[in-house]
Write a structure and sequence with these properties.
Layout: E1 3-9, E2 14-17, E3 30-37, H1 63-78, H2 89-103, E4 110-120, E5 140-148, E6 151-161
Antiparallel strand pairs: 1-2, 1-3, 4-6, 5-6
């Protein structure tokens, strides 16, 4: 059963307008129109879940598994390639695939952040730094590098537990 009414909401009271008559109050008004009044479903139609109060992970991500994922992914994408100006387009592809493979480990309540750096090896240096706040008991990271054919890549996966 739907009933439509025009209403005016003032700071502390609600005035219902019938047939276009108006009421003015000295405080600011918010006008809403065509509000729909719906019947509330019976309590048996609502599903209720108990709170889990889970403060820690049931399963922890292994750094060695993540390092293996990084190593395999870097070799898969970069073997036989040399660094060119358009090599940077592989960075996003590699990072997305690393994140997807980390999620496939099936560890619930973890957020994965992947970073990949790619560049030429000829007399170049790269300095990377990252900072974040985390719990060393449940959060972890893994890193691995690849260097061949004038190309280097460094990838890092951060695993952060979300409560």
């Amino acid at each position: 059963m739907n009933n439509r009414k025009n209403s005016v909401v003032t700071s502390n009271k609600m005035t219902v307008l019938d047939g276009g008559s108006s009421t003015t109050n000295r405080s600011a008004m918010i006008i809403t129109s065509a509000q729909t009044v719906r019947e509330t479903p019976a309590p048996s139609q609502f599903k209720q879940y108990e709170n889990t109060y889970q403060l820690g992970p049931t399963k922890v991500t292994s750094s060695s598994k993540l390092e293996k994922i990084i190593d395999e992914t870097l070799k898969e994408h970069l073997t036989g390639r040399t660094y060119t100006n358009d090599s940077s387009r592989y960075v996003k592809l590699i990072a997305d695939q690393l994140k997807q493979k980390a999620k496939e480990l099936g560890v619930p309540r973890y957020k994965y952040v992947c970073t990949v750096a790619l560049g030429p090896t000829r007399s170049s240096t790269l300095s990377m730094a990252s900072r974040c706040v985390w719990d060393p008991n449940v959060d972890t990271f893994a890193e691995n590098s690849y260097e061949k054919d004038g190309l280097f890549a460094t990838a890092v996966i951060y695993c952060i537990y979300t409560e």
